[in-house]
Amino acid sequence: MVNCKDVSEHYITPKSPPYFAFNIWSMESAKAVIDGSAKTGQDVILQISMKAFQRLDKEELRRFVTSYMEKRKVHAYLHLDHCRDLEQIKEAISYGWDSVMIDASDKPLEENIAMTNLVCGIAEETGTLVEAEIGQIFKTGDKGHNAESGIARIEDIKTFVKNSKAHILAAAVGTSHGLYKGLPKIHYDLIEGISEFTDIPLAIHGGTGLTDEMFLKLLSYGNVKKINISTDVKMAYRWGIMESVQKGYTDESGFDPLKVENVIHDSLEEMAVNKLRLLRKDR
Ligand code: 13P
């Protein structure tokens, strides 16, 4: 059994509870997810894509999340999602992000390990958690790829865990990013197989479109500690816009941005609540 590195200060450890991680892109989307977190009493991860990270005022977002989560009496951790750029990773760490993901999964195994360890070295000083990817988690509809072709090989996972200092492993187990046609085939046996030789926490990507039963099954494996939801957040935003149009809030006469923003907020909050309640015993 390879034990996860010394992580006593970290928010995700082999012994920590599992979390949902929602992709946000603005203070408003962060606020709506934190409100969902407060409604359910479940701590949450707010993750930011590289694209959104470039656009955001990092300092302001960090300040806002810290003050708003204190006000709502929950913990919202900031995470940089799928990053391939060392400068952005350094920036996120310098602005107090709680965790970062280095995604070198398209590189040969040795290179993926080396890149991951480089980031772990940078993150060590601040105690920032590092997530790495093994196998490849593709987008639904990616030409020439599918979830099966990216599945992580158990031997590679063993080599990766033995040689890398990553704290969280995003192993490709059959899910994809984006909207599924039908339901994906999750390789639960792989999740279990990993737990037989390491206690490293796993991140499951591609959470949009999974059923509650699938989430609960994933959460029943003690090593699943992070489940990512992105497309569903965007879809909730889209629903908010569509509902505003339908209710006449976008009509020229009497147009009120506050009404539109409230509907969008509530749509995002409801989406987050629907996932976060699955973490509760009394769901
Ligand atoms: P979805 O967009 O499929 O929910 O995937 C989210 C994700 O894994 C982000 O890294």
Provide structural commentary.
With 283 residues, the protein is of the alpha/beta class. It has a single domain (4-234), classed as TIM Barrel (Alpha-Beta Barrel), CATH 3.20.20. It is built from 11 helices and 8 strands. It has helices at residues 27-40, 50-55, 58-72, 86-94, 109-124, 147-150, 154-163, 188-195, 212-220, 231-246, 257-276; strands spanning 19-23, 44-48, 76-83, 99-102, 129-134, 168-171, 202-204, 224-229. Strands 6-5-4-3-2-1-8-7 form an 8-stranded parallel beta sheet. Strand 7 (202-204), helix 9 (212-220) and strand 8 form a beta-alpha-beta unit. Helix 1 (27-40) runs parallel beside helix 3 (58-72). The longest helix is centred in the C-terminal third of the chain and has 20 residues, at 257-276. Mean pLDDT is 95; it is low at 3-7. The chain binds 1,3-dihydroxyacetonephosphate. 1,3-dihydroxyacetonephosphate (13P) binds next to strand 3, strand 8 and helix 10.
Question: How would you spell out the order of helices and strands?
Answer: EHEHHEHEHEHHEHEHEHH
Overall pLDDT score: 95
Measured as a percent range, the helix fraction is 40-55%
Q: What's the tally of helices?
A: 11
Number of strand segments:
8
Record the SSE blueprint.
Layout: E1 19-23, H1 27-40, E2 44-48, H2 50-55, H3 58-72, E3 76-83, H4 86-94, E4 99-102, H5 109-124, E5 129-134, H6 147-150, H7 154-163, E6 168-171, H8 188-195, E7 202-204, H9 212-220, E8 224-229, H10 231-246, H11 257-276
Parallel strand pairs: 1-2, 1-8, 2-3, 3-4, 4-5, 5-6, 7-8
Helix pairs in contact: 1-3, 1-11, 10-11
Bound molecules: 1,3-dihydroxyacetonephosphate (13P).
1,3-dihydroxyacetonephosphate (13P) binds at residues 23, 81-82, 177-178, 205-208, 228-232.
